[in-house]
Amino acid sequence: MKKAWFLLLLFTSIAVFAQQEPNLALYKTKNEKLKAWLKYTNEVLDADNYPKLLIAAQKGIVLSNDQLAYKSRFYFLKGNAYEFNNNQTKNALANYELALKYAQKARHLKNETSALMRLNYAYYALNETSKREQLIAYIKQVLDTTKSSYTKSVLYGSLGEYYLDNAQYETFIGYQLKAINYKKLLKKTVANNETIGVSYSQIAAAYTKMKQYNKAIEYLNYAQPYIKTSPYISAFSCNYYLQCFVPLKNLDSIQKYYTLIYTFPSKKDSLFLNLSFANKSVSEYYANERQPDIAFNYAKKAVLLGKKSNDQDIIMEANAVMGRVLYEKGAYKKAIEILKKASKNALTYDKESFVNINKKLSQSYAALGLWKEAFYYNEIYSKYNDEMMQESAKQSIANAEAHYQNKTKGQEIKSLSAQNTIKNIQIAQARKQRVYLISGLILVGIILILLYKQSRNRKKTNEKLQLLNQELDEANKIKARFFSILNHDLRSPVSNLIHFLHLQKENPELIDEATALRMQTKVITGAENLLTSMEDILLWSKGQMENFKPHFKEIPVNIIFQEMQNHFSGIETVAILFEDPENILLNTDENYLKTIIRNLTGNAIKALDKTSNGKIIWKAWQENNQTYLSITDNGKGGTQEQFKALYDDSQVIGIKSGLGLHLIRDLATAINCKIEVRSKPDSGTTFMIIF
Prior knowledge:
This protein starts with a helix and ends with a strand. The chain has helices spanning about 5-10, 30-45, 50-65, 70-85, 90-105, 110-125, 130-145, 150-165, 170-185, 190-210, 215-225, 230-245, 250-260, 270-290, 290-310, 310-330, 330-350, 350-365, 370-420, 425-505, 515-545, 555-565, 590-605, 660-670; strands at about 555, 575-580, 585-590, 615-625, 625-635, 675-680, 685-690. It is about 70% helix and about 5% strand. It is α+β, with helices and mostly antiparallel strands. The radius of gyration is 40 Å and the shape is elongated. The strands form two sheets. A five-stranded mixed β-sheet has the order 2-4-5-7-6, covered by helices on one side.
């Protein structure tokens, strides 16, 4: 919201003039003609008629010829025409530089002051860092030599803005308070009072940046008596209040100033700028309160109004908050698109915004699993965030050192004046103390370095041990999981095979030749199916040992049903039916699903162990854009307590009782489906897999 500073000044006490073009033929001398034309040009500026201002200023330049003071002023007004007509800052810059050149030649301090003020902003807006540094050095020279209260009031404020842009807020506040003191020395006019109010508002904005919101509110309150005559400045002031009350979570005050800002009349560009910023602030409040839908509505308004303002700073901030809200809503791809737009100009206008935008970009890519891009933007975030922290630390250290040095020098002067007679003794004592102090500091420094290195080595060792323990724990869990799968899926077929061999060995007289032949054929078939299942399970287990994660692909349900029919072909006591009339395709991990189906089928067979005419039915169908698989048996059923492991992580089933409902639960979660069970005593049981 950098441009707002000058807009605030521009909107102080604007009067409406007739803008009647003077008839220069009525004026005798060149100086009278230039004076009349300058008056007319200023009236055009006050009316915000920038195309007309451009023409008037150009004519004034031609009329000025060798009158350098007037030529300087007309070039300045021409720069205004470009700057405030769709932000043509490059064209404005060229004219401001010429305004400064001719003001210096004419030794016209007031014109020079105005040109320096606008050049400071223009170099900032166009990221002309080197030129701006040179300009700031020159401004300091002017301030050191001038006695003009007006020049000091303007240039101290301009100098303060330079430090504000570099996040040196305490230095900025110091210069801005100096500017206010000099403004109070000027003639008490409405316009001057309003500039004092603007300066207090700028200090409030700096305290907001430092997150000292109550202090910011204090300075905004100081500003109110000075700006009460200007609805335009009052509108900007409402936005500064919003910036304070949003982080303070004061919803009543937020709603008050948000409503109030819509009541102030305003110029077209400042209207959209103010409304965009207000909606951005309210959007941030609801985003902080985890209400992304409400935040999104305000963010939409902020973006729309920002575009109408044609102010790149405001557009950037509106896009930044929209990107953040889209991230909170889980629309990561759209968030990335908007945040990239915001990042293009963010570093130019506000380093803190640039840092936050790159942080959200990194988080959005991470949420999409695009780790390379996430790492790239996290690197940018870390770099500039560290720079901000270093700048803040350097400034704090510099301020502390300056304060310490000033205090020390004062004490030394006082001490030398009072104790001049024992000067040599004091010097000798000071030298001894210095040696002791330096020795002590060196010793303390060595100890601190050793402690730091020891702590860092211990931390690295602990981190390595923790990582190894996590890897070992995960490996043990995967091993136990696959042992459970192998135990369940191979035990039943092997048991059937062993059962038949025992029967053939111990009671051969019970089996006639036809039955024996039929059972041998069935055993061979069952053994072949068992071998196929073993190869399938072992190959899957080998592929999953290092990274137990599902691999999704499309697979027909009837293929899985066919494999299950083959796997359980040795079961004679229970009829197992498979129904897939719609020939459904599933996008899932084949092995995860087969493991779940084998386990549920095996559990159903056990449930029908003492049930005559046992029947199991597998069904597949689609309904309401969801796919369902269900297994139903006509067994004795059970209670919800028996199936608690499907829902309760603390319930654990041993390896001898099957794979365990807890593992069914984990595998189902991994392939994005859920298991429901319906069972009543003596009414059978139905398990439903919902995709």
